[in-house]
């Protein structure tokens, strides 16, 4: 616990130093803003890439071992069914809550924002594909598992790993056990790497925060105060709902869970990447008492299907852009948009700012000027901090809930 607290405090200190450094450069050294931001951001880039380096092998090894050790196909189906029930329910609640609140608060009708970052918006538009069933199928099923590994396509890796794990579980011990043992050892070695990489987190946080504050300054918080206020109010309500459901399932142990995952939450908030905390979250959930087989199975699925914060944001941002342009969308159209977002949003949790691409694609479908993405680009970093942290909370609760329902949650937790 002492090491965990040291890392937590180190991250808080790095966050504070990053804000101060960025503020000083923005106000005192205006000529150096661009080179400073570019160079200091490398610290964040190094940290994210170190984590991304181990995501694919960790998801593959832990998921295959988790499924193969279950052995019972019926158990795999039962656990997967419970997980998907949680994921779909949580996703619909998140999308619907975002839809209701953006229509009630109407931030787009009271806020007139300058059109900025047009070049960035055009770049996003250039790389955006419209939604189609064909694109959705291609996104789920890998053409090559090596390509999926190289590009860190978590959803495709999950599909391959589930099939491989089920196949192993039906081979019999003589053939399966040596492979399972190798993969199990590999998973533990990768988790050991995580403990080394996490100590680079404070530097990564410092670099990411210093760069964004140096570039945008403190005024960014004032210019977009209404939008940020309304979005974070919506996130707070979502947190209350998630924690209330978590309390109904876990009781007072919910507070212990929140203490356990405070570091992953903070890192996700600082780096705007849910992917960056995946390995650490695996470790903390197992220490909390979740069965390692269930963690290995549910958590990778959650990173593709359980994006509560991202889904909340996508409905909120899409309707906000429509409000800015004075486009009145009927209730039926908004509900259709919500269901489309439910499908197109899968597999984006690990990619910072990937929600923007989904928003652009959705706006194009429903006659909303996709160029409106430029309105929210300057503050997307701050919104991404909140939604990434919410994604982590949602996945932690989903994993512990399924463990509890399966009777696989150790009430005393693991070793510290």
CATH structural architecture? Orthogonal Bundle
Please estimate the helix content. over 70%
Total individual domains: 1
- Cα distance, first to last residue? 6 Å
Strand content: under 5%
What does this protein structure show overall?
The chain is mainly α and 416 residues long. The protein has a single domain (2-217, 224-405), classed as Proton glutamate symport protein (Orthogonal Bundle). Helices cover 80% and strands 0% of the residues. It has 20 helices and no strands. It has helices at residues 2-28, 33-70, 73-105, 107-110, 118-126, 133-140, 145-150, 154-169, 173-197, 201-216, 219-223, 225-250, 253-260, 262-271, 278-288, 292-305, 308-324, 331-344, 355-365, 373-405. Helix 2 (33-70) packs across helix 10 (201-216), helix 12 packs parallel to helix 20 (373-405) and helix 14 packs antiparallel against helix 20.
Keywords:
416 residues, mainly alpha, Proton glutamate symport protein
Mind sketching the topology for me?
Layout: H1 2-28, H2 33-70, H3 73-105, H4 107-110, H5 118-126, H6 133-140, H7 145-150, H8 154-169, H9 173-197, H10 201-216, H11 219-223, H12 225-250, H13 253-260, H14 262-271, H15 278-288, H16 292-305, H17 308-324, H18 331-344, H19 355-365, H20 373-405
Helix pairs in contact: 1-10, 1-14, 2-8, 2-9, 2-10, 2-16, 3-12, 3-16, 3-17, 3-18, 3-20, 8-16, 12-17, 12-20, 14-20, 15-16, 16-20, 17-18, 17-19, 17-20
């Amino acid at each position: 616990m002492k090491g965990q607290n040291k890392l937590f405090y180190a991250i808080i200190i790095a966050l504070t130093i990053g804000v101060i450094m960025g503020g000083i450069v923005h106000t005192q050294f205006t000529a150096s803003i661009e080179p400073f931001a570019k160079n200091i951001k490398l610290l964040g880039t190094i940290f994210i890439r170190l984590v991304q380096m181990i995501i694919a092998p960790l998801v593959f090894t832990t998921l295959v071992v988790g499924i193969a050790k279950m052995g019972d196909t019926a158990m795999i189906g039962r656990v997967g069914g419970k997980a998907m029930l949680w994921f779909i329910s949580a996703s619909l609640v998140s999308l619907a809550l975002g839809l209701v609140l953006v229509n009630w608060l109407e931030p787009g009708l009271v806020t007139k924002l300058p059109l900025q970052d047009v070049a960035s918006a055009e770049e996003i538009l250039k790389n955006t594909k419209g939604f189609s069933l064909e694109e959705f199928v291609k996104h789920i099923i890998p053409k090559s598992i090596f390509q999926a590994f190289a590009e860190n396509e978590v959803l495709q890796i999950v599909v391959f790993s589930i099939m491989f794990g089920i196949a192993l579980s039906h081979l019999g011990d003589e053939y399966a056990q040596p492979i399972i043992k190798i993969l199990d050892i590999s998973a533990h070695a990768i988790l050991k790497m995580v403990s080394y990489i996490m100590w680079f987190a404070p530097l990564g946080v410092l670099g990411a925060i210093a760069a964004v504050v140096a570039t945008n300054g403190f005024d960014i918080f004032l210019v977009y105060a209404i939008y940020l206020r309304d979005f974070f109010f919506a996130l707070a309500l979502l947190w209350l709902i998630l924690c209330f459901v978590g309390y109904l399932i876990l009781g007072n142990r919910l507070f212990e869970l929140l203490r356990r995952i405070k570091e992953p939450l903070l890192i996700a908030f600082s780096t705007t990447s849910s992917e960056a905390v995946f390995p650490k979250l695996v470790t903390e959930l197992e220490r909390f008492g979740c069965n390692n087989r269930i963690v290995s199975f549910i958590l990778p699925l959650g990173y593709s299907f359980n994006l509560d914060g991202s889904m909340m944001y996508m409905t909120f941002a899409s309707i906000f852009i429509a409000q800015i342009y004075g486009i009145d969308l009927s209730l039926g159209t908004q509900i259709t948009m919500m269901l489309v977002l439910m499908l197109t949003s899968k597999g984006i949790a690990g990619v910072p700012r990937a929600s923007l691409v989904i928003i652009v694609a959705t706006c194009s479908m429903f006659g909303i000027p996709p160029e409106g993405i430029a309105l929210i680009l300057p503050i997307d970093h701050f919104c991404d901090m909140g939604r990434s942290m919410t994604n982590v909370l949602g996945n932690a609760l989903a994993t512990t809930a399924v463990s509890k329902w399966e009777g696989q949650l150790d009430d005393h937790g693991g070793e510290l």
